[in-house]
Design a protein that fits this description.
Helix content: over 70%
Number of domains: 1
Mean pLDDT: 75
Distance between the termini: 34 Å
Strand content: under 5%
Number of helices: 7
Structural class: mainly alpha
Low-confidence stretches: 1-9
C-alpha cells in the first residue's frame, strides 16, 4: 500500500474525510488485510512456509497502516507524522525478522507443505483481488488514490508468485522456491518501511522548520 505524503498512511486522508464511500472502501480493505493476515501467518507456521509468513506480514502491515491513516483523520500534521515514524520502525523490524528467519531456514532447507502453501496462496490472491475490486472505482484520482488500488493489484501479483513457488516446491521437493519468494516479499516490505520512514522524517523536519519560524 502507498503512504500518504503527509502521514505515511495508506490512501488520501483528505478524500477519506470528505467521501464516505471511499472511507468505507478503505475500512473493507483494513478488515480483509488484518483478518486474512492473521489467518495466513498461522497457515505459514503450519505449512512451514517462509513465503506465506512474509506475505502475511505484508497483509498485516498494509492493514495496520491503512487503519492508522483512517484513525488519524482530523489529527494534527505533527501527530500524523509521529505515528508514521512509529509505523515505519514497526514495519522495518518485521521485515528484518522475516529476513533473519529466512536465512536461518536456508541452513535447514526443509521443504514446506506445498499443497497447503498453494491453497493459502490462492486464498490470499482472492482476498487481494477482492480488495482491488473494492478500490477499482477509486483508482482514478490523485497519486495517493491511484496508488492504493495499484498496490492491492501488485500484492495480488506477489500472491501469484507464492502459488508458483508452491508448485516448484512440489515439483522439486526443495525449499529454495519458498525461500526465494520470501526474500522478494521481504525486500518489498523493507522498501515500504524505508519509504514511510523517509516520508515521516521529511515531514517532521518541515514541521519543525515551520514551528521554529
Amino acid at each position: 500500500m502507498s503512504n500518504d505524503s503527509n502521514c505515511g498512511c495508506t490512501g488520501d486522508t483528505v478524500r477519506a474525510e470528505r467521501d464516505p464511500a471511499y472511507r468505507r472502501a478503505l475500512w473493507i480493505v483494513v478488515i480483509l488485510n488484518l483478518g486474512f493476515g492473521a489467518i495466513e501467518i498461522v497457515g505459514g507456521f503450519i505449512a512451514n512456509s517462509q513465503a506465506l509468513k512474509a506475505d502475511s506480514l505484508d497483509f498485516i502491515g498494509d492493514g495496520t497502516i491503512t487503519l492508522a491513516g483512517l484513525l488519524a483523520i482530523g489529527w494534527t500534521a505533527l501527530a500524523r507524522a509521529r505515528i508514521a515514524l512509529v509505523q515505519g520502525l514497526f514495519l522495518l523490524m518485521l521485515g528484518i525478522g522475516v529476513v533473519g528467519v529466512a536465512l536461518w531456514r536456508a541452513l535447514t532447507a526443509v521443504p514446506p507443505e506445498a499443497e497447503l502453501m498453494g491453497g493459502i496462496g490462492v486464498a490470499a490472491l482472492l482476498v487481494n483481488l477482492t480488495s482491488a475490486a473494492v478500490l477499482s472505482r477509486f483508482r482514478e484520482g490523485d497519486a495517493n488514490v491511484r496508488a492504493v488500488w495499484l498496490f492491492s493489484r501488485n500484492d495480488a501479483i506477489a500472491n501469484v508468485a507464492v502459488i508458483i513457488a508452491a508448485g516448484l516446491v512440489a515439483w522439486t521437493g526443495r525449499a529454495w522456491p519458498d525461500l526465494a519468494v520470501a526474500a522478494v516479499i521481504a525486500a518489498i516490505f523493507l522498501h515500504s518501511a524505508f519509504e514511510i520512514l523517509r516520508s515521516a522524517r521529511t515531514e517532521l523536519r518541515e514541521l519543525s522548520t515551520v514551528a521554529g519560524q
